[in-house]
Write a structure and sequence with these properties.
The chain is α/β, with parallel strands linked by helices. 23% of the residues lie in helices and 26% in strands. The radius of gyration is 20 Å and the shape is globular. The chain binds zinc ion (ZN). Zinc ion binds at residues 59, 62, 153.
Length: 337
């Protein structure tokens, strides 16, 4: 069985077939840690290679990542890409992908938290979150070196920076050279979270001390409608990680860094945003601008310095986040201070 066939079956078949081909990739141990999750570990490892977790389809209608994932599988099956580093390949939400939907019962990318009652919750995504967390835990038990998790998504709206990385909240900063690698892969902006948010990339970072990002790779489009050319540098990065090629990041690549400084929650049924619904991510609002009005909480107005709005959505449930507010990170020029 080829890797491509395995993942195609995982998405489309009524009944799941376990991975069983022990000789699919010469010199590589392939282990199924959960349905739709394969670990590829070279039998002979060069010292110092870094492991990678690559996930796609956590939201079922975000197809560009699934197409990139398919390119990797095809290259592996054809022997054009050799596995030189431990890699965990994860296809997220099979039923949502098959249905072309973001999710079936609830947003999978809010559920990656231990010590919750997921086990007793029979919603489709709750069971899948459990499987994925266990699969990552199993993969991580055998890994000794550094790990990078790239959880690939596409955004629901346009963006002033079409390709951006969200850095989960953590006490340990992302090393500069990792930001540079992302910039070299065509990522235009980085957004650092200000508090815990129970996403998949946060899970690997928070519980396993890995580096991890949620990558927004352009805007949601149906299969075949994605601009894969703009994602070619990202595919190169994924291939290099899989091959265990410890390339130096390009010297001239850079991206714009933002910090989340606040969020606006929907507190009552009577809630509205004060700007057009289809506004682009990272749109800037000047001091004095009105952002949202909530029946219980009142009006939010931008105070002394401009803010950038990310992921606005007025139609979230009560008590949920309706938008994030971000500011550019003030970068100290080299040699200053
Ligand atoms: Zn997504």
């Amino acid at each position: 069985m080829s890797l491509s066939d395995y993942f195609a079956d995982f998405i489309a078949a009524d009944e799941l077939t376990a991975w069983s081909d022990s000789a699919a990739l010469p010199g590589v141990a392939v282990t199924e840690h959960a349905p739709g999750v394969l670990a590829l570990v070279p039998e002979a490892l060069e010292p110092g290679v870094e492991a990678t977790i690559i996930s796609a389809g956590i939201h079922g209608n975000e197809t560009a990542p699934i197409e990139l994932f398919g390119e990797l599988l095809a290259a592996l099956d054809a022997g054009q890409l050799r596995v030189g580093a431990p890699t965990l390949l994860i296809m997220g939400n099979r039923r949502a992908i098959a249905g072309g939907q973001r999710y079936i019962d609830t947003n999978l990318n809010r559920l990656f938290r231990r010590d919750t009652l997921l086990r007793d919750d029979d919603r489709f995504e709750c069971q899948r979150a459990l499987e994925l967390m266990q699969a990552v835990d199993r993969f991580m038990t055998d890994i000794t070196g550094a790990v990078l998790h790239l959880d690939m998504h596409t955004a629901l709206r346009d963006s002033r920076y079409p390709r951006f990385a969200i850095e989960p909240f953590s006490d340990t900063p992302t090393p500069d050279n990792l930001w540079q690698h992302l910039a070299g892969a065509g990522i235009q902006a980085g957004l650092s979270q200000h508090q815990h948010s129970w996403t998949f990339s946060h899970y690997t970072r928070h519980y396993h001390g890995a580096q991890g990002f949620t990558l927004e790779l352009g805007r949601v489009a149906p299969f075949g409608g994605n601009d894969l050319e703009s994602l070619a540098p990202m595919l190169d990065l994924l291939r290099a990680r899989l091959a265990g090629a410890g390339a130096r990041p390009p010297d001239n690549a850079s991206l714009v860094r933002f910090d989340v400084i606040d969020e606006i929650m929907r507190e009552s049924d009577d809630f509205r945003l004060c700007f057009a619904e289809d506004i682009a991510n990272f749109t800037e609002f000047a001091p004095g601008s009105s952002l949202a009005v909530d029946g219980a909480r009142g009006e939010w107005v931008v105070k002394e310095s401009p803010v950038h709005v990310v992921f606005p959505n007025a139609r979230v449930e009560r008590g949920a986040r309706a938008l994030l507010l971000a500011r550019p990170v003030v970068q100290t020029p080299p040699g200053a201070g």
